[in-house]
TrEMBL record:
The UniProt record lists the keyword Coiled coil: no
InterPro entries the UniProt entry points to: AA/rel_permease1, CAT_C
Any single Pfam family the record assigns to this protein: AA_permease_C
Membrane topology: Multi-pass membrane protein
Protein name: Amino acid permease
Keywords: Membrane, Transmembrane, Transmembrane helix, Transport
Source species taxonomy: Bacteria, Pseudomonadati, Bacteroidota, Cytophagia, Cytophagales
Main location (coarse class): membrane
Subcellular location: Membrane
Membrane spanning residue stretches: 41-63, 69-88, 203-221, 233-253, 265-283, 304-328, 348-371, 400-419, 425-444, 465-483, 503-520, 527-546, 552-568
Length: 582
């Protein structure tokens, strides 16, 4: 049992990770091309952060939280800022691809590295499926608006069409007219009704989602230079559109719409946490570019911080403009930016926004389709996945097999599946990655105390948490008791049985972790920023509900089966240890 635990926690030092990368590149002549500069990295970050969140999910978040949702963007940015600083330190220490997977390998060991790697594969894949489907919806709407409508059965997934058709039949049987049904139900009904059949199987598929995924995958496949130029161009276009929205929209803001500022209180603001956080996960993708940066130790930390600051300012200002232009309750629509301009009779601006949404979401898809293959590649290099995933194309200098697999993993589900809660599932995966990266910094800091080794490169600013964290926790408890005493009492009440108690489990876990970290901070003088990053991200995870937790844990359990069936035995560290013992 002791040997098993040692094997599962075997670590790869930063020196060993760099040595493996350099050795693999020299042997096979397959180094990735170092072409990305600071402006390219910032562009990648903005491309990933400003996408579906700003063009769609910001609407539902604003409808739930009112103008106060702007504070949620700030709070989420602070939580991401703590994480970004921790990412930046790792990126300057270990400038190789792999993102949080590589960082976990160096700090926690192999098992945790596998878990976070498997988590990142889910996060990137499901996130891209969601973006592809959302892109398809916008593209279809624009085509219909210019008179080039696409048949419904080619713009919708099979499950949505089937369920919508059955719902429509029930309502029609009750005497309702088809024109009186919700638009989405009408589209599903027509899609199923008009779809051709093959052996009794209705041929319904989201063709635009497939097409954009294939196109983006091809761009990523043929090279980083092509991906870089495309991302920079798309980012420039959507920043111009967002500035146009803010500038024009400011003239139509009515301050009366900002009262009340938080109509549904803190609960209403926090209801949009998954949608808002989904908008911020892009800076994680910057760290996957490490091996294609000209100067990763200098530029990666800067790019993460710059992208986060720029996007936070844009999100906060945009949230205030939207909620100032129309009453917040009207924003529960799929295209809030286009809607508010239609509402004030600026249809030309609404049309520009709709087209720019297509551009924005394509850039998100590009960055994440770029990032995911490099995580596959890093895991393959360590022996945890088959070697094919780390093969580099001799001409294009990209991990071509991993890129093709990523294309299939996104394209096929986007073509046929109905994914209604992918935002939450992607958010919980990202938050988990952020928690481990922040925790990894704490582990590395403790090691450096023991070995007296000084870290070179960017470092998270050290603030002693010995007294600061206990004081912050105490203040938080007092504020909760003062403003939400009834809710606190209800939370600790055991009435309602298991059905009620299970939903409290994530928050009980957060309370336990907070107590442990507060004690350790006092005893070990832990660095405050990584601790706050860990706790804020863990708290945001508790807001995502027990359903998403159960799905997330199921995915991780599946990953553990694959690890013990393949990765554990084929790990390069495992094989190296066997060679030494032999």
């Amino acid at each position: 049992m002791r040997n098993l635990f040692q094997n599962l926690t075997r670590r790869k030092s930063a020196t060993a990770l760099m040595a493996d990368y350099e050795r693999d590149g020299n042997i096979h002549g397959t180094d990735l091309i170092r072409t990305l500069r600071l402006k390219d990295l910032v562009s990648f970050g903005i491309a990933a952060i400003i996408g579906a969140g700003i063009f769609s999910t910001i609407g539902n978040a604003s409808a739930a939280g009112g103008p106060g949702v702007s504070l949620l963007f700030v709070f989420t940015a602070i939580a991401c800022g703590f994480s970004a600083l921790c990412y930046a330190q790792f990126a300057s220490t270990i400038p190789v691809s792999g993102s949080a997977y590589t960082y976990a390998y160096a700090s926690f060991g192999e098992l945790v590295a596998w878990i976070i790697g498997w988590d990142l594969l889910m996060e990137y894949a499901i996130g891209n499926i969601a973006v592809a489907i959302s892109w398809s919806d916008y593209f279809t709407a624009v085509m219909q608006g210019v008179g080039l409508g696409i048949p419904e059965f080619l713009t919708m997934d099979y499950l949505s069409a089937s369920r919508g058709y059955n719902t429509a039949l029930e309502l029609l049987a009750k005497g309702q007219a088809l024109s009186a049904l919700p638009v989405r139900t009408q589209e599903a009904y027509l899609a199923w009704l008009n779809a051709p059949s093959l052996g009794g199987f209705k041929l319904v598929a989201d063709l635009p989602a497939l097409s954009i995924t294939v196109l983006i995958t091809y761009l990523v496949y043929i090279g980083i230079k092509e991906s870089k130029r495309t991302a920079n161009f798309l980012v420039l276009l959507k920043l111009l559109v967002i500035l146009l929205v803010i500038t024009v929209g400011a003239f139509y803001v009515s301050p009366a719409n900002w009262t009340p500022f938080a109509p549904n209180g803190l609960a209403g603001i926090m209801k949009g946490v998954s949608a808002v956080f989904f908008a911020y996960i892009g800076f994680d993708a910057i760290s996957t570019t490490a091996e294609e940066c000209e100067n990763p130790q200098r530029d990666l930390p800067r790019a993460m911080i710059f992208a986060l600051i720029i996007c936070t300012v844009l999100y906060v200002v945009l949230a205030l403009v939207l909620t100032g232009m129309v009453p917040f309750k009207e924003l529960a629509v799929g295209d809030p930016l286009a809607y508010v301009f239609s509402r004030v009779n600026l249809d030309v601006i609404a049309g520009i926004v709709a087209v720019s949404a297509i551009i924005a979401m394509a850039s998100v898809l590009l960055v994440f389709q770029y990032g995911q293959p490099r995580i596959w590649m890093s895991m393959s290099r360590d022996g945890l996945l088959p070697g094919a995933f780390s093969r580099i194309h001799p001409k294009h200098k990209t991990p071509y097999f991993a890129t093709i697999v990523t294309g299939f993993v996104v394209a096929v589900p986007a073509l046929f599946m109905n994914l209604t809660e992918v935002t939450d599932l992607t958010s919980i995966g990202t938050l988990f990655a952020f928690v481990l990266v922040c925790g990894g910094i704490l582990v590395m800091e403790e090691k450096q105390k023991e070995t007296a080794v000084t870290h070179k490169g960017f470092r998270v600013p050290y603030i002693n948490g010995k007294y600061t964290l206990p004081l912050l926790v105490l203040v938080a408890i007092l504020l909760l008791l003062y403003y939400n005493e009834a809710e606190v009492a209800a939370f600790f009440s055991l009435s309602g049985g298991w059905e009620s108690f299970q939903h409290k489990l994530p928050l009980f876990g957060f309370i336990a972790v907070t107590a442990v970290l507060t004690t350790l901070s006092y005893q070990r003088s832990l660095s405050l920023i990584p601790v706050l990053g860990l706790l804020t991200n863990l708290y945001l995870m508790t807001e995502l509900g027990i359903t998403n937790w159960s799905r997330f844990l199921t995915w991780l359990a599946l990953g553990l089966l694959i690890y013990f069936a393949y990765g554990y035995r084929n790990s390069k560290l495992h094989n190296a240890e066997k060679t030494v013992k032999a």
